[in-house]
Amino acid sequence: MGGEMIAPEEARGDDVVLAWEGRDVLAVRLPHLSDSLDHILAELERRHGMPLAQLDRKTKQSVVRLLETRGAFSVRHGVETVAGALGVSRFTVYNYINSQEEKRAEKRRDEG
User: Fold this and answer.
1) Is the pLDDT higher at 102 or at 64?
2) What is the pTM of this model?
């Protein structure tokens, strides 16, 4: 996620301070969500061994599914960022998201 370890005395209000046996020993500064999205996209490129824009359609859909579960689209400009990384339009990303929502709704109907 791109967090940074810092000394506990340098911690700010939104940092996570870790304690051991009642003593603060370490603090972690988490990145802003938009920075986290960049880290997630970079990790996905490493995992697939190529730029995300070079993936086939089915794999791009699975990437969007994964990113949706990780909250990527709740970040401001998340859809635009993902679309750029995948080499597709925002409209295509929205179609991938909507397709997944339709599949989940269909599955719920079949189970109910």
Assistant:
1) 64
2) 0.65
